[in-house]
Amino acid sequence: METSVQNAKRSTNKIKKWFSVFFEQWELQSMVWPGIIFMIIFNFIPIYGLIIAFKRYTVIDTLETAPWVGFENFQIILNDKFFWGSVVNTLGISFLKLLIGFVLPIILAILIFELRQGVFKKLVQTISYMPYFLSWIVLGGMLINWLSTNGLLNTILSGLGFSIKHENYLLSTNKYWWIAVLSDIWKNTGWGTILYLATLSKIDPSYYEAAKIDGATRFQQIMKITLPMLKGIISLNLILTISGLLGSNLDQTMVLMNNQNQAKAEVINSYVFRMGIAQGDFSYATAVGLGVSIVSVILLVCSNQMTKRLNDNTSVL
């Protein structure tokens, strides 16, 4: 009896202490809780809707009245050649973005950091950030125009003396992956330097001064000081990038995809959108999304374990 009373008093004291700390930090709490409430409403409550993946759901059903079909939707996925085609496209485009687009923001951030002229440095940063703030609707319209038969690219190549066959590059299935990768890199590389530049700004300048005294060149300073200081944030970005390999830029795909290049342009996100919204097969689309999410979590765990080995068994998550 005494033990239960003591436990009740302890729990009451903990609650009082929690409220006292909450009201002492009410300014910080007022900024945090709206984000928490937003996540609960739009990220956690919708998880209940995943049961659609195990039902035959239509617009005239509710979540409770729709009949259960077990793993039937997942069996359909395994035999759907169009889905597996979208998987191949997603992985192909994502791997190219990883191989090329992951390194470029690091290189650009180091180059900007090494610039000593303030005005020119700010100008370079501003120009590199600009494409990020343009929507894919705007950029897509520009690319459609530039890559057309009489577009900017063919005009420039002809002006330089290249004998080319004037073609609309977006109608070529063999060229779409590179168009998607390079346009995504153009849009996001500048913005991707922000985290690296923020980390570089915190490096103690005395490290570089000591390196200069020891006779280290600029390149040696980058290799021995700059890159090791970026190891943590590089590892974190690598984990997030690998875990998102099955994700894809839906906005970019919907703008650049057409009937001619669809065989190479269709990615998982656009396939889910087409099956779920356009064709109304909500159960199938939910099953695809659930499967992709599970694989993404597995990739997240595996990439975290991989980076731990590269960082002396220390996780950045």
From TrEMBL:
Q: Which residues form a coiled coil?
A: none
Q: Name one GO cellular component term.
A: plasma membrane
Keywords assigned by UniProt? Cell membrane, Membrane, Transmembrane, Transmembrane helix, Transport
Topology relative to the lipid bilayer, per the entry, is: Multi-pass membrane protein
List the SUPFAM superfamilies hit by this protein, alphabetically: MetI-like (SSF161098)
- State one Pfam family annotation: BPD_transp_1
GO BP, sorted A to Z:
transmembrane transport
Q: Which Gene3D superfamilies match?
A: MetI-like
Q: Does the keyword Cell membrane apply?
A: yes
Q: CDD domains of this UniProt entry?
A: TM_PBP2 (cd06261)
Membrane-traversing stretches: 31-54, 91-113, 133-153, 228-247, 282-302
Q: Where in the cell is it found?
A: Cell membrane
**Chief localisation class:** membrane
Q: Which family does it belong to?
A: Belongs to the binding-protein-dependent transport system permease family.
**What's the protein name?**
ABC transmembrane type-1 domain-containing protein
